[in-house]
């Protein structure tokens, strides 16, 4: 661990999402985490091709690094969500040294990559009972070798040096469960929803260990399209309307909206209802899988992060469908601000920053491991 008098800069976390790129650098000051710098920029809607988006990232990150907000060039990144597939399966109980080869064999059979050039990683979710047998529950993660090489090459061109490459669900859990203290609810499962632009990732943990990951193809893009269809608007206008709703959703007890504002809000909520219902039903299936597979206590809350989680009506609808209360997470709850974010931003919860925070904490683990090794 770092000494009490330490003032340690962590690697720069870079989260390239579907709609925006975010960078954050934390520092450890006397064992407390503090935001040193943060920056974000939305992708222009005119960028359609992946090559254009990559060039945008390279230019934008290089410009930011020219300033003095971020220090150093070490970075931790996450593979783009759309490039990574997740699959759960079971393998027979076996010695730990044999698991990796068994997972690789199963993964090559189950992942539908066109090329044999693929990269796989896995999480062992522990032992579960299937009939009379005890088996390993495995979460396998896969992407094409080309996608991984392109990702690493992208950051090489920015001038950053990647010390680790993560996946967003692991970063989200690290953010929301970091330094969690044992309590009376030890053994209680937790469920998280990262409701982003491209999709929603559901993650379940048990005592800090990830035991389930599922990607659901309902996110901001689908809700924008439903808004456009329901309100008979061009897609760009519907996208802007959804953005305004997310940034201005009032507290449940706030009744200050004007009649026209309330009318527009109700029409927009009605338009996205089919998509939200689909999302709620998929989350219910995740809850059912957890109950059948792990036979544990049902999660009491669905903790939501990601840009779409600002929509309180969306969370309320999910709560009604699943029977589990959907609440907003607090990605920066244990981190000092020091005026990097405005008070308004800080009060909003900064839900879209969960992945970046988790990536930065991965950097902290890397540095602590190096210090202990030396």
Sum up the structure in keywords:
7-stranded mixed sheet, disordered N terminus, single chain, alpha/beta, 28% strand, 374 residues, 10 helices, Nucleotidyltransferase, domain 5, 5-stranded mixed sheet, Dna Ligase, domain 1
Give a short synopsis of this structure:
By secondary structure, this protein is an alpha/beta fold. It contains 10 helices and 15 strands.
- CATH superfamily heading of the domain at 180-333: ATPase, nucleotide binding domain
What series of H and E elements makes up the topology? EEEEHEEHEEHEHEEEHHHEHEEHH
Strand content: 25-35%
Contiguous uncertain segments of 5+ residues: 1-5, 179-184
Assign a percent range to the helix content: 40-55%
Structural class: alpha/beta
Question: Could you characterize what this model shows?
Answer:
- The protein has 374 residues and is α/β, with parallel strands linked by helices.
- Among the domains are: 85-142, Dna Ligase, domain 1 (2-Layer Sandwich), CATH 3.30.1490; 180-333, ATPase, nucleotide binding domain (Nucleotidyltransferase, domain 5), CATH 3.30.420.
- Helices cover 41% and strands 28% of the residues.
- The strands form three sheets. Strands 1, 2, 3, 4, 5, 9 and 15 form a seven-stranded mixed beta sheet that branches.
- It is globular and about 60 Å long.
Question: How is the topology of this model organized?
Answer:
Blueprint: E1 7-9, E2 12-16, E3 20-29, E4 32-42, H1 50-66, E5 74-78, E6 85-92, H2 96-110, E7 118-130, E8 133-144, H3 145-158, E9 161-166, H4 168-177, E10 189-195, E11 200-206, E12 209-216, H5 220-231, H6 235-248, H7 259-294, E13 301-305, H8 312-322, E14 325-328, E15 335-336, H9 343-348, H10 354-373
Parallel strand pairs: 2-5, 4-15, 5-9, 10-13, 13-14
Antiparallel strand pairs: 1-3, 2-3, 3-4, 6-8, 7-8, 10-11, 11-12
Helix pairs in contact: 1-3, 4-10, 5-6, 5-7, 7-8
């Amino acid at each position: 661990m770092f000494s009490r008098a330490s003032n340690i800069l962590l690697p720069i976390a870079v989260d390239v999402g579907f709609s925006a790129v975010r960078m954050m650098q934390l520092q450890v000051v006397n064992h407390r985490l503090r935001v040193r710098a943060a920056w974000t920029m939305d992708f222009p809607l005119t960028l359609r091709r992946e090559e254009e988006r990559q060039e945008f990232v390279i230019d934008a990150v290089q410009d930011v690094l020219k300033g003095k907000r971020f220090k150093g060039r070490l970075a931790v990144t996450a593979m783009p969500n759309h490039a990574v597939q997740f699959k759960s399966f079971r393998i027979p109980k076996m010695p730990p040294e044999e698991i990796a080869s068994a997972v690789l064999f199963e993964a090559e059979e189950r992942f539908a990559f066109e090329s044999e050039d693929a990269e796989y990683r896995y999480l062992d979710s522990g032992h579960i009972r299937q009939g009379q047998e005890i088996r390993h529950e495995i979460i396998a993660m896969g992407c094409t070798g080309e996608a991984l090489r392109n990702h690493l090459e992208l950051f090489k061109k920015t001038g950053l040096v990647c010390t680790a490459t993560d996946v967003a669900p692991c970063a989200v859990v690290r953010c929301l469960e970091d330094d969690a203290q044992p309590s009376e609810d030890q053994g209680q499962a937790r469920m998280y929803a990262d409701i982003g632009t491209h999709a929603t990732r559901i993650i379940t943990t048990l005592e800090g260990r990830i035991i389930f990951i599922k990607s659901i193809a309902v996110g901001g893009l689908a809700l924008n399209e439903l808004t456009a269809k329901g309100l008979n608007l061009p897609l760009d206008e519907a996208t802007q309307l959804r953005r305004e709703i997310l940034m201005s959703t009032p507290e449940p007890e706030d009744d200050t909206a004007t009649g026209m504002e309330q009318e527009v809000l109700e029409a927009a909520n009605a338009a996205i209802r089919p998509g939200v219902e689909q999302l709620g039903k998929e989350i219910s299936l995740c809850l059912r899988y957890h109950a059948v597979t792990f036979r544990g206590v049902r999660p009491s809350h669905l903790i939501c992060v990601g840009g779409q989680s600002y929509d309180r009506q969306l969370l309320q609808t999910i709560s009604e469908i699943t029977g589990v209360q959907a609440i907003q997470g607090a990605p920066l709850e244990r981190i000092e601000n020091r005026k990097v974010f405005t008070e308004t931003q800080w009060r909003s919860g900064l839900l879209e920053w969960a992945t970046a925070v988790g990536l930065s904490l991965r950097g902290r683990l890397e540095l602590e491991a190096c210090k202990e090794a030396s």
